[in-house]
Amino acid sequence: MKKFACILLPLLLIGALAFADDNQSAAWVRTLCREAVTDSIDAAYFNPAGTAFLDKGVHIQAGNLSVLQTYSHTSVALFPTVTDYEADNPIWLFPTARVGYNGGSWAAFLDFSIPAGGGSLEYEEGAVLLDPGGGGSILGKSAVFAFSLGGSYSFGDRISIGASGRVLYGNDGYEISLNATGGSAEAKATGIGFGGMFGVDYIPFSGFTLGVTVETEAKLEMEYTEVTGDGLTVGAIAGFGIAEGNKYDADLPWRIRTGIAYELPFGLTVSSTFKYEFYKALEDTLRDAWTVAGSLAYDVNDRLEISVGGSYDIDQVADVDNYNPLNPDLSSFTVAGGLG
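^ thats the sequence. predicted structure below, dont judge the formating
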């Protein structure tokens, strides 16, 4: 049986979703829990072992996420006056796509996702890191594109295993103008890395699913391949480490995902998720991060589902000196809801 799902994600979201993490499908956006999914091809990203329990046949899914966002930060320690900086540029394009085939007891799939970055921040009136140079403006863009190939196999109707390998392509860019130099500069950095994931899905009894997935560390070394602009500004941003040939790490950490889902007889599905990310293994100045989430989804009829969800994320920043206003990662509480 061939299935086709074309998903248009909501334009207005409640929560901190400006940069990629797990916002890889419309179902996640409205539940925040997909680690035990076995009825949709977005399992290729959240629970690869669960693809073995999909309906037999072809599954295709494509979607786009648009985000209205506001970020701000304040300088108070280094300067005599308090200055607020704000970035509120929207993100209109954040695509995902996946296709898979289930042959009965096995499945194979291809997945395209953006597991990191995917957005941009534009500080038109300056940012704290530009203040020593007299202010200016800065636009930062970041995206890590992941292309995954994987498969799964079920041992009967109770347990399955799954795995995938992926190629990562990183693409970062900056557009900077400095009042001190009266000029501007642009910079671009790219890099290629590799990673993968493997997992187990267990259904001890009808209606209850337990999914466990481990994502390997993905080494991604970025290099500034192009820095252009007037000489004074190019020389000034070199002080930020932005210079042609300079390299920096954008590695993704080991992650452990666990999820449970229980479908009650009257159409209500209760789900929960726990995710742990080993950032400290990448850099001692960081700390490990974790997320806990829960959701309720109710089948109104065979074609309509309504859902609510909530999550809490602990940030990875251990030392405020390492905070980057162009790529913030903060503790957050997120509330979600929607129709499917």
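Residues 1-18 have pLDDT under 50 and may be disordered.
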